[in-house]
Amino acid sequence: MWHEILFRVLSIVNYAVLIVIAIPLLLQIFYVLFSFVKKKTYPVSEKKGRVAYLIPAHNEEDVIFTTVKALLEEQDYPRDKFDVFVVAHNCTDRTAELALQAGAKVLILNDPDPAHRMALYPMKYGVDHILGIRGEGTYDFILRLDADNHVNREFTSLMNDAFQSGVEFGRSYEGALNGAQNFYTKACALFYAFDSRFGSRVRERLGIAAHINGSGSMMSVELLRSCGGYDCKTITEDAEFNFNRMLEGKKGHYVEDAVAYEDMPSSFKVTLSRNKRIGSGNMELLKGQLLKMFGKFFTTGNFSYMEMFLTYIFNFLAILISVWVPLYYIYHFTYTALIVNGVIAVSWMPVAYYSSMLWTTLWCAVGIAGGLFVLFGYGQAALLAILDYKKLGAKRRRELISAVLLFPVFLVLYAVTLCIGAMSKSAAWGKTERNSPPPQAGQGE
């Protein structure tokens, strides 16, 4: 009968979907299993480059003064060798005034175009300004931060060591300012730290390109000049810049001991807003650069391209996980249950076959889901809480116990919010809800 044929076809499609989902998950398992390799460090350099911190800011009067002040006063680096630039983008508050009071070099960007309400445009403006500086005031590299970020004392020195060792662009460890605030901040801190502690360390040791995005990233001025400035177009401009450089044959690196502490989302609303931007932006990358990454792997044999593709394809997989998987298994169990109970007649296979399939599928689903929850939920969360709790904004490991226990629930919520973002239009850059108090000097060291 036609419904039996449909059932068989959908079953085959589902097997293919599960394989597509499983491949990136196996890669993450690999990172967890080999995450105890020795971290990469760079030799200390006596040569001190000139550094420009660049902070794009839109209505950040709540945090900008503390961020700039901490950078200028707490870095273990010659004060005459670095400056902080704040690009006040369409600000209607005291962001520019307070940044100036704290000691920053303030650039004002008033851009009425509603399509430009994203971090991309103040980043372009700031980079162009810095590249336009010549002579003795020329900078060697740029460190990008968000308005709420704080970094450890050695941050500039560690990034300089990497730069002097030949690193043209790189990333730091992504820590949390307010990781112990509530369930959402704890879970977000654990999620973002996964790639820092596990994925990034293993990639660096194996010579695979780092995933460079957002806060704490470093770009050499020479590199920026060679590519004509900040050559990005999408809302996920940080990942796009990384992709552009990779497609040119350049490889980013990871500086693990340099830590950029971020303010983590403290509610479902803020988490959804962030993930809508990430999901929609990464779908733009999927249609452009990410598919090029896939093709580049087959023309060069460089695994960095395939690894990047498999990691970022998760934004598309979030749709499969959130939509296809639940709908298919609701259909699967309903159809087989109706056959077993005599509601639907079948002629192709005996009823006993469908009865066996019903229970086999049920137990396999429970086993696979349970295994993934244990490994990706409790396992990785527990390891992060034990190993890196200070970088996650906690003073004691036990502060993260609740997040470890509920982390699988957060992963489901995260996949759903990414799915919503992947199917949404890009969101404009609005005022961000900040949660955390400024950290104590030397936090997380």
Total number of beta strands: 8
The ordered H/E elements are HEHEHEHEEHEHEHHEHHHHH
- Widest sheet: strand ordering: 3-2-1-4-7-6-8-5
Secondary structure: helix percent: 40-55%
Which runs of at least 5 residues are low in confidence (pLDDT < 50)? 436-445
In terms of structural class, how would the helical and strand content be classed?
A: alpha/beta
Total helical elements: 13
DSSP strand content: 5-15%
Task: Indicate the CATH topology of the domain at 50-268.
Answer: Spore Coat Polysaccharide Biosynthesis Protein SpsA, Chain A
What name goes with the CATH superfamily of the domain at 50-268? Spore Coat Polysaccharide Biosynthesis Protein SpsA, Chain A
Give a short account of the largest sheet: 8 strands, mixed
Which architecture name of the domain at 50-268 does CATH use?
Answer: Alpha-Beta Complex
N-to-C span: 67 Å
Global mean pLDDT: 86
Shape: elongated
What is the C-level CATH assignment of the domain at 50-268?
A: Alpha Beta
Produce the secondary structure layout:
Elements: H1 2-33, E1 51-57, H2 64-74, E2 82-89, H3 95-102, E3 105-109, H4 120-131, E4 141-144, E5 150-151, H5 155-164, E6 169-176, H6 183-206, E7 217-220, H7 221-226, H8 237-247, E8 253-262, H9 268-300, H10 303-312, H11 314-340, H12 351-387, H13 401-422
Parallel strand pairs: 1-2, 1-4, 2-3, 6-8
Antiparallel strand pairs: 4-7, 5-8, 6-7
